[in-house]
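This part of the workshop introduces the protein records we will be handling. To make this concrete, we reproduce a full record directly below.
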Amino acid sequence: MTVKLYNSLTRSKETFEPIEEGKVKMYVCGPTVYNYIHVGNARPAIVFDTIRRYFEYVGYDVEYVLNFTDVDDKLIKAAEEMGEEVPEIAERFINAYKEDVGALHVKEAVHHPRVTETMDEILQFIEGLIDKGYAYEADGDVYFKTRAFDEYGKLSHQSIDDLRSGARIQVGEKKNDPLDFALWKQAKEGEIAWDSPWGRGRPGWHIECSAMAKKYLGETIDIHAGGQDLSFPHHENEIAQSECMNDQTFANYWLHNGYIQIDNEKMSKSLGNFILVHDLVRNHNPNVVRFFMLSVHYRNPINFNDELLASAKNSYERIKTAYDNLKHRREASMNLTDDTEQWKEKINRHVETFKQEMNDDFNTANAISVLFELAKEANIYIDQKQTSTDVIDSFISTFDELTSVLGFELATEELLDEDIEALIEERIQARKDRNFSRADEIRDDLSDRGIILEDTPQGTRWKRQ
């Protein structure tokens, strides 16, 4: 199975060739856990989870690592504002992250390393860079010598001279060159800190990912992924320090997802358009949120608003309705038709098309289009007077298989309570008695309760709004 992916490093689409046959070593930059994650953080969580799922679907063993930054300036500031300790805040929002992305059907990583649990490896990494002449200590801080790495700028495709023109040395920094970046920061009075050969302090942001990737995946990994905003300087700095330390390529493929805008504007607290996933999954079906995120190719920007989310809900419901119709029709199906194999062949062709789209840089937007085509075929099939249980089962299992790759669900486990069930039965009887005013009354009542009724040739069915 040939998978092609767009490599941000080369700015070209390449055939994926793993370091180790049948295995994918994949590192994804995770959140800084000082607050609930916003909808912008949800996109990489969903996108790279889907890519992981697809690799697993086609037979790869994926060693998936997503880190938690559980100590940095933002956490220290949050601790001061809340009157709490940094580890307390980190633990609370790590749990919140897992809960929020779990609601969006994001699978747990194989490894979820934390900065505070990787301190020995970080210190060893920094010492190694100093010993090799790529880093220097300055009054308790340690900086990386950016100009010592000849290929600096190769990921962001910028020359080091262009980068230098915009670089500044901030007040309190003692680095030799404006482009140099911190590997270790001396602690201020009262801040959380660890002992080091350069005094008490904490790691810089960039060094943590290099140390974690090396610890869990080795010196060279297959795929490094994250949001487009991380390409520079975070990922650029990771490449520099890792390749100087290990004397080999850090990551063979770099994947970056596009930005999210809210009503065509950058998301910002000052604009009042800052959407937390914690709130989003309480007010909207998480399946619809995930469906929406995957309805645009992961490298393209995506605009987010209530109208677009409502449109995604309608699209998701079209597929779900076809799926529910299949489940409903299955009860009355028999193995009486002569064209079972032809229909199964049609279904299999859709599966192959789905794979072709996903093999082409994980084009989830086109993969969802395949689901619409499958739904269309399913609707045509169940309109036949005679249907085969085997074909119905094939449709259902294919929907389950492909939506599992994309990470959203069509099946629902919810049950009506006894009162609503009684109202549905009363409405059915009212229709039989041609008491249409009462039937309409019941329909409106159920609608107010968030229950939508569908009168089909196979009987009355319901679904939640």
Observations:
- The first strand starts at residue 4 and ends at 7.
- The mean pLDDT is 91.
